Each structure stands twice: as structure tokens, then as C-alpha cells.
Amino acid sequence: MDRSAEITLITETKTQDANGVWTISESTRTVFCQVDSVTRSEFYEGGRNGLNPEYRFTMFFGDYEGERTVEYNGKRYGIYRTYLGRTDTIELYAERKGGTNVAPDPEPEVVGNGGN
């Protein structure tokens, strides 16, 4: 198996401050895997169930810690199912979906003093 592709696994952690405000922080780590498109049957069956399957990432089982989001080629995907392989591997099935597609917008740049 060719595990030369890199993906970033993303873990989101929710914390509540003393004022009761929730914040979400992300931690990431990069792992090596094999990347394949999902099969035709996986694509159509997923579509019937409201999913949008795109990729299957096959990696060493010990590298996966239950993350629900993955980034590949600058795009974010949600992991909708996993499959344990026979030889210490796990397959992550990923779909593009709202809320995982883009990184947060940067803060707007302030230029000049607004004409004052």
C-alpha cells in the first residue's frame, strides 16, 4: 500500500469560560495515508442517505484517534464512517459538507484612518 499522501486530522475541543461562553479550539496533526476515491456503489448509496462521499483515506490504525474532520489538499471533509482493515489499517470515509469546507475568514485588514 502506498501511504505517501499527507492528510491533517483535526480535533475540535469545546471549553466554557467563567462567564459561560463556549469557545472551540482545534488541534491538528499530519499523518501519512493512501488516498482513493470512494467506489461507485459507496457514492450512490451515500447519496441516497443524504451524504456526499468523496474520498477513502487508508492509514495505520494506531494513527487514528477518533477525529471527525480531515483536511486534504486545502479542503476540509467530515468523516462519516470508518472501517477496520485486516492488516492494522483503518479506512476513513469522508464527505464535503457545510461547516467543514473552508477555514475561518481572517480578520479584515484596516487600511488608513477612514478619511479622517
Characterize this entry briefly:
Helices cover 8% and strands 49% of the residues.
What's the rounded overall pLDDT mean?
84
Number of domains: 1
Number of helices: 1
Query: SSE order, as H and E?
Result: EEHEEEE
Q: Report the principal-axis shape.
A: globular
Q: Assign the structural class, choosing from mainly alpha, mainly beta, alpha/beta, alpha+beta, or little secondary structure.
A: mainly beta
Low-confidence stretches: 100-116
Gap between N and C termini, in Å?
A: 63 Å
Q: Kindly estimate the percentage of residues that lie in beta strands according to DSSP.
A: over 45%
Major beta sheet summary? 6 strands, antiparallel, barrel
Q: C-alpha Rg, in Å?
A: 18 Å
Number of strands: 6
Question: Strand order, biggest sheet?
Answer: 1-2-3-6-5-4
Classify the oligomer.
single chain
Helical percentage: under 10%
Describe this structure in words.
With 116 residues, the chain is mainly β. It has one domain. The protein has one helix and six strands. It has one helix at 40-48, and strands at 5-16, 22-37, 53-60, 69-72, 75-84, 89-95. Strand 1 (5-16) and strand 2 (22-37) form a beta hairpin. It is globular, with a radius of gyration of 18 Å. The model is unreliable at 100-116 (pLDDT under 50).
